Amino acid sequence: MTFPADAQTQNLIDGRWIAADDGASIEVADPATDEVIASVPSVGEAETRRAIDAAHAAFGPWAARPAGERAKLVARLAELMHRDADRLAAIMTAEQGKPLAEAKGEINYAAAFLEWAAGEAPRMYGETIPANTADKRILVMRQPVGVCAIITPWNFPAAMITRKLGPALAAGCTTVIKPSELTPLSALAIGELAIEAGLPSGTVNIVTGPPQGIGDAFFGDERVRKLSFTGSTPVGKLLVRNSSENLLRLSMELGGHAPFIVFDDADLDRAVAGAVACKFRNAGQTCICANRFYVQAGIYDAFVERFSAAVSQLKVGRGTDEGVAIGPLINDGAIEKVRDHVEDARSKGASIPVGGDMAKIDGLADRFWTPTVIDGMTPDMRCATEETFGPVAPIARFEKDDEAIAAANDTPFGLAAYFYTNNATRLMRTAEALEYGIIGANDAAPSTAQAPFGGVKQSGFGREGGKYVMDEYTSVKYVSWGLV
Ligand code: SIN
User: Fold this and answer.
1) Average pLDDT of the chain to the nearest whole number
2) Hey, which of 235, 288, 439 would you mutate to test ligand 1's pocket, going by the most ligand atoms within 8 Å of its Cβ?
3) Quick one: which of 35, 197, 209, 277 is 20 to 30 A from 241 by CA?
4) pLDDT 10s digits, 296-327
5) Which residues line ligand 1 (CB under 6 A)?
6) CA of 286 to the centre of ligand 1 (A)
């Protein structure tokens, strides 16, 4: 399916589709071609305040609905996403670049967060606690936090929204969503389906525009009670500072710098397949994708050879073309960062058995990078210390387990870490020693709606998925009941 000409391009406020007050707009371009595919409103503080008004007005009635009713509407939105998966995938590939099959996979992944949250809504259990005196009872209940501001990135234009929207709505919160200016069309398409699903006006509002005005509205309004953000660590820190005025509840899913360790006793076939899948998902533009590899000396040469052979098979091209595994990077800045990391490693003595340069494709923009393996990463290389966010796999050799674990932990980030071993004791010791929120032990694809996704250290805080996610959108209220 090609990009649908009737894709929604207006903002959603209080159940109505609106333009910016002053008519301003932002162009959305296909990163593979630079072709402008649509324009969306460039709204600011005033429009966002109206979205908050709508979310605030909708909150009381929505929170008062029985959890089962809220769950049905959230689940209906998931059904509609499955129904329209091809259309949503076409929109995503056009604005983000990822291959169509991967985009469709993301739509199903995104719907799973809604399904999971719908299942959790009726299970927002409270508690009774034995009181300190005979004439009292202690009750604990969970209540929705209120209006939630949701700020999402361009790398997963659908799933990062539903991962927050699903539990927020299921818990009884209402939302104002600000998607990335680079990928607003997927968000607006989800907004259309939210209306079709029957979600009441004001429960889902979507505003597009530059961060400043929208952020000013979010941070300047006491009716906003919660901010959930996925994006870079520097932006996350800024948002944490800005949210201090009104002491917003926060969920922060920030940057990563994932290590991928392969021990001598690993199953080499599985490790190579896992390494390719983990590193090159979304062309390496994923917070949890492997950013640096540590391979034990006894298996090093075999791993580099087989991994390089597998990487050389990955087809680069436009996401709409058959068999493409690696689409364009999101913008010129992304290409520059990848180039800097590769050139830095080359200048410091690494060898590059595969890739190492841009992929020039006739008729397409200069935004494709050939999947690259860097053999001989050393700690002074930028790729060893910074998130590359591109299709580059640097590999270092290690001798002793402790060496790899120390290198893996030697970073301010703590989102995801991976390792492969067939020794159960080594597996448990390594899982315990790695300072990360998510561990893939013989598994390169840990993301799922059933599990708690989130980081430690400067990768943020809060958990999305699993039963834990409902805690992010609810407050605990304690009732001390004196018997009369
Ligand atoms: C991310 O890159 O932040 C999300 C990745 C995932 O959900 O697997």
Assistant:
1) 98
2) 288
3) 209
4) 999 999 999 999 999 999 999 999 999 999 99
5) 155-156, 159, 230, 253, 286-288, 447
6) 6
